[in-house]
Specification:
CATH class of the largest domain in chain A: Alpha Beta
Distance between the termini of chain A: 76 Å
Strand order of the largest sheet of chain A: 7-6-8-9-10-11
Strand content of chain A: 5-15%
Largest interface: A-B, 55 and 55 residues
Order of helices and strands of chain A: HHHHEHEHEHEEHEHEHEHEHEHE
Number of helices of chain A: 13
Helix content of chain A: 40-55%
Largest sheet of chain A: 6 strands, mixed
CATH architecture of the largest domain in chain A: 3-Layer(aba) Sandwich
Radius of gyration of chain A: 25 Å
Oligomer: homodimer
Chain lengths: 336, 336
DNA sequence: CTGAAAGCGCTAACAG
DNA sequence: CTGTTAGCGCTTTCAG
């Protein structure tokens, strides 16, 4: 492998000059710089990140820690983070818990601390106390996306407002019998977000003087399959079912839509359905939803970390990420 | 940060001994080893991967290069790779093209070659000649998952057989008017796989003496939205539409299912639908499909690379990954 | 079984 | 504007 010394020798300059020239640092004459660039190109020189990292203390890589990759929100945030990092010349080291607790200790107490990364993004993780403290002890900048962790900065939407907007959309259409499909529960995934949304649902219902029936509040784990099962249960009795369902995620809302097909319930004629997310499938499914943009959230969070690493002052207040009601074909006026 | 020297000094041994003890190398007395382990723990010592990488030439990290993260197949393979790597103590460095060509050159000609990784997995990428050759020149082991690249080892299913099995399932149910929703087309994503599946569809139809109508072969880009659009077009004319559709991916099949709902076509009474993948939503959607397991594929491919890095001889022949017909509710006998 | 010492390839003062 | 000189923190011969 050709090293910085090969380039330096072949040009009769010092390695320091090569290093400066290639990194765009000031204090190199234009002509030297271009000769160096040229020669580096010719020799196919690529700097070793290990050597650079050792010498400089910066690895030019950030880590992303998440509960699972195969899940719309997570992979979308990841995509946004990657986009931003790539543009800044940083690499992305991935730490997935893979939907289970296996190797979890290793990830926390070894991999992350291995000095391979200059900063860390954590996604929607429910942390144990010991994990939380080892996170707080990390000397490199850290940020959390999607579900707050006490003591760490957080990028995400206002979950309470998002849920309220969803429920009020239904109420605005005249619905009074409104069910709720709750998220949360999978191993290791943050449980605050589903709780916040549920609380907002209840409060909004109460604020409008509407009744909450326990049998209309069902668990769906944020997922299609569980959402379908929950919906089949909630909608089973034609004489006593809600006219609208608020789902804490779009995937669960797909489950409700599917349940409606299976049960022969017309949407939105007999049943209105609204979700949260604006999942990739929501547009073609005609699902009304509260849009959030995980792509942007990832990009934004990565940007904050990058700014800090580049010496810019840390923003002490992180703006809440936007959400937006997207009305499609799955919601309509209450049936008379 | 506490270094190996801190541990060595505090114990009155050499750094070499600490290094050997902690890495489980032979030639350390049991008692020394446990004292070292103990002290490392006490001091919270974590080795620097940069220093270790510089000294040893091994980074203990593999790279994954893929067109996009936010897509079921890719994120599922990624999850499998991550699982295997994590178990082996390797880190995973992610390179996503993010669905576009931006930064593509940089990824190929810099990031990947930056000596940050000991090996590389490439997913379903359509490569330019120059990219292909820079891949072949990589001194570290490389493997391709999901779509073959000439000259590089490949892990994946037999796409031709998978498509044939799907079509023959429909034929076995008595269908003769069988449409096809084709994949492929997105920027940078492999285009061999969709072509192989299409060819197999045509050949199977021909082998059974069945007619292929151009208007029944529609493009869907492997995706829900495009699949829906294609299906609406294919199924528009009630007097002249297929009784079954073979989709090159489950996501497109969801589009057909959705189109059927919109058009009031009964599935499977009037229309049978089969896909390829066994997407996470296929079970709750009741979609008949040809299952493949991207998780396993990623795990398997990572395993091959790891074996090689650990000095085991490279398998010269990589077994084809299995696929399997999963019959659910979306296919049934041809309407009479 | 253990230690000494020479780097790995780069960066970062410090001189000039 | 450019070169010299120390390391960064580990691994790895080579001795003992």
């Amino acid at each position: 492998m050709t090293s910085i010394e090969d380039v330096a020798k072949s040009l009769g300059v010092s390695t320091a000059t090569v290093s400066r020239a290639l990194r765009g640092l000031p204090g190199v004459s234009p002509s030297t710089r271009s000769r160096v660039e040229q020669e580096a190109q010719n020799l196919g020189y690529v700097p070793s990140s290990a050597a650079a990292g050792l010498a400089s203390g910066r690895t030019m890589a950030l880590g992303v820690l998440l509960p699972q990759i195969e899940r719309w929100y997570f992979s979308a945030v990841l995509e946004g983070v990657d986009r931003r990092l790539r543009a800044a010349g940083y690499d992305l080291v991935l730490f997935s818990l893979g939907g289970s607790g296996v190797n979890r200790g290793r990830v926390f107490h070894r991999s992350i601390l291995r000095k391979r990364i200059d900063g860390l993004l954590v996604l929607c993780l429910e942390l144990t106390d010991s994990e939380r403290s080892s996170l707080l002890e990390l000397e490199s900048p850290t940020i959390v996306v999607g579900g707050a962790v006490e003591g760490v900065r957080h990028v995400g939407i206002d979950d309470s407002a998002a849920a309220r907007d969803a429920v009020e959309h239904l109420i605005g259409l005249g619905h009074t019998r409104i069910g709720h499909l709750r998220g949360g529960g999978s191993f290791g995934i943050d449980f605050q977000v589903p709780r916040i949304r549920e609380t907002a649902y209840r409060r909004t219902m109460a604020d409008h003087g509407l009744e909450i029936r326990p049998e209309w509040e069902v668990f769906g784990d944020f997922r299609f399959k569980e959402g379908l099962a929950g919906a089949l249960q909630m909608l089973a009795d034609p004489g006593n079912r809600p006219t609208a369902v608020f789902c804490s995620s779009d995937e669960m809302a797909f489950g409700v839509l599917r349940a409606a097909v299976e049960l022969g319930i017309d949407v939105p004629g007999e049943l209105s359905v609204i979700g949260i997310d604006d999942h990739e499938f929501s547009d073609p499914m005609g699902l009304t939803t509260i849009r959030q943009s995980p792509n942007e959230q990832g990009d934004f969070a990565a940007g904050i970390l990058l700014d800090e690493l580049q010496g810019h002052p840390a923003a002490d207040v992180i703006p809440v990420q936007p959400h937006e009601l997207i009305v499609r074909a799955s919601t309509g006026p209450v049936p008379r």
